[in-house]
Amino acid sequence: MEVFLDQFLNPAVLAKYTPLILKGAGVTVLLSVLIVLAGIALGTALACLRAYRIAALSLPIVIYADIFRALPPLVLILLAYFGLPNVGVLLSSFTVLFLILTLVLAAFAEEIVWAGITATPKGQWEAARSTGLTFTWTLGHVVLPQALRMVIPPLTNRAIAITKMTALGMVIGVPDILGQATTAQSFSANASPLTLAAVAYVILFLPFVIASRWLEARFAPPGA
Amino acid sequence: MASVAASGGAADAAALSVRALHKSFGADEVLKGIDLDVRRGEMVFVLGPSGSGKSTMLRCCNRLEEPDSGEVLVEGDRLTGPGVNLNRMRQRIGMVFQSFNLYPHLSALGNVTLALRRVQGMAKAEAEAAGIEALNRVGLSDRARHYPSQLSGGQQQRVAIARALALKPSVMLFDEPTSALDPELVGDVLDVMRDVAGQGMTMLVVSHEMKFARDAADRVIFMDGGVIVEQGPPEQVFGAPTEARTRAFLSRFHG
């Protein structure tokens, strides 16, 4: 028991590395917010483009979405971080993590929002078009608002899942929570920084999870 | 307006004209050449068994269904053919659907004003004044801030009628407007339709409300198998139908 406490809850180590973990928490929060905003915006935009049913647009979107949903994000992160410099593209580890996770989230978000668009009754399109609204206005003001409300639960689940993947940044040296914790762990030869990291993740993501429940309830269809 | 001059004096033209309309779904020819003129202010009822093509004919009148051939004209202006500004023409053709199709995320007023603002380019205050006026015409201006889910089916359909009315169309199309309603809610919608007709609106109505057709319609058209079988004043079509198919159809309703 003593060994366990010393290894996971060592007071001296905890005190020493708490500031570092807090710094990492800042990076994790910043990354998460940027990824969720950019990923959902990009995914929604792609789903809207697909609604025009122009094969030259839809086909590349579908191929992109399938590839990025099929590959493990870690593979993409490593490919981008260690592969791109060989073709002359030098990106910081932060940028690589942001780009890849945004593209992965966008791929899922595109499929989710697309499902919402196709699930919106045909009569909504017909009613709007019969009043002279253009296709684009109908999509933006009649169909998309309904589609997004419908897909809030899967979208928030996916957003939470992707923000937890910021921890993958550790393997390419992003100074996020886990990155700082593993660094501290090797310096201190003690696992307590990882305990700190776990606590930090819970403190950060639990409100996020609770907020998503509120969001789902707020936009639930009446009677549900 | 150039289009008026080109059509040779729209003042004489019927509010809605359908010429040699053909439409097939695959091998199934649903409309086999429909010719129809609806005069200004006329209320025309279209009856017929399911599959007779009456709904398809109605939906061709604002090109929600694209005709294979034939013409549709609104006050002499072409709706079909090359170079037609469909979105502009559709503002002159109001449509009321069987399933209401109100926008669930917008209030009653939001439903009515969306096209006023985004299509006709009205400012918010102007659109809302016009929206309230349209809701007033269907007796629901006190429900302006209600959402569709807070309204009964009959009220929803009346909001849908207001949404179409607000654009001040030349003609209104009704596609089985009471078929999705509970029987006790049908009367309110029919009353509103009677009011709208009384104010001079041109209306083409696909419906099974025989009694209402007999009371309110100026003309009744009986369709079967993709053609107009018989038409005339309601007392003639209901009272003394000349075609065997009309008699057979009506006898099923009268028992």
Summarize the topology.
The complex is a heterodimer of chains A (about 220) and B (about 260).
Chain A: H1 2-8, H2 11-51, H3 55-70, H4 73-83, H5 93-119, H6 122-130, H7 135-150, H8 152-164, H9 177-188, H10 192-218
Helix pairs in contact in A: 2-5, 2-8, 2-9, 2-10, 3-5, 4-5, 5-7, 5-8, 6-7, 8-10, 9-10
Chain B: H1 2-6, E1 16-25, E2 28-38, E3 43-47, H2 54-60, E4 69-74, E5 77-78, H3 86-90, E6 93-96, H4 108-118, H5 124-137, H6 153-165, E7 171-175, H7 183-198, E8 202-206, H8 210-216, E9 219-224, E10 227-232, H9 234-239, H10 244-254
Parallel strand pairs in B: 3-8, 3-9, 6-7, 7-8
Antiparallel strand pairs in B: 1-2, 1-4, 4-5, 9-10
Helix pairs in contact in B: 4-5, 4-6, 5-6, 6-7
Keywords:
heterodimer; A: 224 residues; MetI-like fold; B: alpha/beta; six-stranded mixed sheet; 10 strands; 37% helix
Main pleated sheet of chain B: 6 strands, mixed
Look at the structure and give the mean pLDDT of chain B: 93
CATH architecture label name of chain A? Orthogonal Bundle
Rg measurement of chain A, Å: 21 Å
> Judging from the principal axes of the Cα atoms, what is the shape of chain A?
elongated
What's the rounded overall pLDDT mean of chain A? 94
Give the full name of the CATH homologous superfamily of chain A. MetI-like
The rough form of chain B would be described as globular
Radius of gyration of chain B: 18 Å
Largest sheet of chain A: none
Largest two-chain interface = A-B, 20 and 27 residues
Alpha-beta classification of chain B: alpha/beta
The CA-CA distance between the termini of chain B, in Å, is 52 Å
Pattern of helices and strands of chain A: HHHHHHHHHH
Summarize the structure.
Chain A is mainly alpha-helical and 224 residues long. Chain A has helices spanning 2-8, 11-51, 55-70, 73-83, 93-119, 122-130, 135-150, 152-164, 177-188, 192-218. By secondary structure, chain B is an alpha/beta fold.
